[in-house]
Specification:
By secondary structure, the chain is an all-alpha fold. It has a domain of about 180 residues: MetI-like (MetI-like fold), CATH 1.10.3720.10. Helix 3 packs parallel to helix 6, helix 8 runs antiparallel to helix 10 and helix 9 runs antiparallel to helix 10.
Length: about 260
């Protein structure tokens, strides 16, 4: 019964909180703030108009979203694959950890936006530079969580498997990897949010489409409605990505139930 009540209450609370935020936003721009910032009505209207036929630049909002999603998914998947491999290897093998952990600890605190000048010099101004920045945002988060997951596997499980004659390779795939899955999924979710946030910085590198470009073009044209529309689109798509990821995690990790 409690679960059913929670299922009903969560969407109701979400609608109430969003409605309250829009009301506060609408009331806030009635004063001096209205000279600097548009209200929710023109922003939502522009978002809906550009979703269904209207254009920003030469493309509709859906096309801009698709361009950003393709860039994010390319960098995210590459970074996630590399991060899982390196993280598990560092957590499982002390020699790999000794070699790579110092370099990783140096790279991890550097924000992806700091790599923009270097990415332009190394890679150029094409799509590869954007994917490289998003790759870094994904790689660091996934590596850290996979490393932590493999490092903190219960030693009793490993000792029990060794007593039963399990080989080292079997230990990795039957004990360490399954035990690390919850931590890896946590890293994947954080990485997805980080990658979506990084798309703005990535699309500052010579772009003519994408949600980041919408904001940069609006800034150059002093168009606050366009800027806020781009921000709204980034927030909505980011929320949908997070919801989809949580559903996938729930399906794949039924044994790892979480109330969060």
């Amino acid at each position: 019964m409690k679960k059913k009540q929670r299922t009903i209450m969560e969407p109701i609370c979400a609608v109430i909180s969003i409605f309250a935020f829009l009301c506060l936003w609408h009331l806030g721009v009635k004063g001096e703030l209205g000279r600097l910032m548009p209200g929710p009505v023109p922003v939502i209207w522009m978002f809906l108009e550009t979703m269904f036929g209207g254009t920003i630049g030469s493309r509709t909002m859906i096309v801009h979203i698709l361009y950003s999603l393709i860039r994010v998914m390319a960098g995210y998947l590459l970074g996630a694959a590399a991060g899982v491999i390196l993280g598990l290897a560092m957590g499982w093998n002390r020699l790999v950890e000794a070699v790579f952990s110092p370099l990783f600890r140096i790279i991890r605190p550097i924000p992806p936006i700091a790599w923009i000048p270097i990415s332009i010099i190394w890679i150029g101004l094409g799509e590869d530079a954007k994917i490289f920045l998003i790759f870094l945002a994904s790689f660091c988060n996934v590596t850290l969580n996979a490393w932590s997951g493999a490092k903190n596997v219960d030693k009793d499980y490993i000792l029990a498997a060794q007593m039963l004659g399990a080989r080292k390779s079997s230990l990795l795939f039957t004990i360490v990897l399954p035990a690390s899955v919850p931590s890896v999924f946590a890293g994947l979710q954080v990485a997805l949010s980080s990658c979506w946030a990084t798309v703005l910085a990535a699309e500052m590198v010579r772009s003519s489409e994408g949600l980041g470009w919408i904001i940069i073009a609006g800034m150059n044209n002093n168009d606050m409605v366009q800027i806020m529309t781009g921000i709204l689109a980034i927030g909505l798509v980011g929320m949908l990505l997070s919801m989809i990821f949580r559903k996938v995690e729930t399906r794949l990790c039924r044994w790892n139930k979480s109330d969060s």
